[in-house]
Give the backbone structure.
Amino acid sequence: MVFVRKVLLRGFIIKFAPERFDTNYFRLIYTTNFKEVQTYQGISIRNRARNLALDLLSFRNTFLDTEALLARPRVHFLFIHHIFKDEVATFEKVLDKLSEKHTFISHTEAVKRVVSGDIDKPYISWSSDDGFENNLKAAEILDRYNAKCCFFINPESIGKNNAAWITDFCGTKLKMPPVAFMNWEEVASLQKRGHEIGSHTLEHTNVSQMSLDAFEQDLILSKSILEERCGSIAHFAYPYGRFFDFNKGAFDLVFKTGYDSCSTAERGCHISDGTPIEKTDLLIRRDQVICAWKLEHIMYFISNSAKRAVLEMNYAPDSFL
């Protein structure tokens, strides 16, 4: 039976529809479609305006030589958070389209190419944040294209199945209805298939709201837990991902604590004039892909990043200094 249950969490009421609990109250029925996420978040005037603007920009793109832009030599980091059931078809279309002109490489190889300056053709590296169980479907599709992904996970949420904890975590940290997380056996299965695991902080904390001492301890502990489970961990992506969610002190600590790369969620990609750079100077830009968007919108963002790429995008912005 479909109905709305009001759940009191941290002083506010969250409404779920359809019903997310079965006869055992403490067992969640998880979100499986992105439309449920949109219903939860609400369709705002801003979102409608955004879609209209992207329709116009995508149409304008049809008059540009987007194929030439996509063929531009670069390393383009793309990332997802989820592949829900109603996103699968578009994700396959994105991969099919990109495979025409791009070579898919791992996160580790992508970082090495940017650092060394060895960017001789268009490369794409995939990553995923947050460790949702539906990323297993994403990996299955990526495998068909021989594309490897770096899954940035929060050790604290892996294997969690407590209804109250998941509902609270997804609602407060991710602004989403309850979504199932991978367990450690599933994480191991990704590694066996050639995918990589990276750190996304211990429990998806906004780094800008942490002291540097607290952040350093978080980096060390999350790396230690992941390495105990997964072996060497080389890559880090900070939650929320905007420049204002991070700072220069935190950036330096990522490398001090033994990571080889640091990733944002700021749009852009990486080019080179052939000159090597220090890995401790590289701040990775990543273009987010939400496969509930129209394919034309996704390709607009990717081609636009290829168009506006400059050498300065390899480095941290002045606001970090």
